[in-house]
Amino acid sequence: MSSYRDLDIYKISFNLFINTHRFSMKLPNYELFELGSQLRRSSNSVNTNVVEGYGRRTYKNDLIKFLVYSEASGLETISHLEKIVALYPQLSLEAEELAKDYDLLGGKIHNFTEYVRANWKS
């Protein structure tokens, strides 16, 4: 792999960020800068932590740390989506689908983290 762009977790998290950002704009106007902003920031963090971790890949522990941050931001994003499901039933189908996608991504990030722990050269 010659770039973070080669990582599946990067590709998936980037596409999910775009989809989540667009979804967040469907929230009521008064929610765009509250829950919508939190959703956008946590979704962005999933992706950017993958990139930052890859940038520090020379240091195995730094890479692991940022992958853990990325996975945690995914969980935060799922939590925001669960709130949207509860508050805005008209958006629940799309929010639930995004949450499932973040859950699957979290598993992929976790598996990659475990691969790095076991196989990455420091």
From TrEMBL:
Domain of life of the source: Bacteria
PANTHER family cross-referenced by the UniProt entry: FOUR HELIX BUNDLE PROTEIN
The name this protein goes by in its record: Four helix bundle protein
Record organism: Algoriphagus ratkowskyi
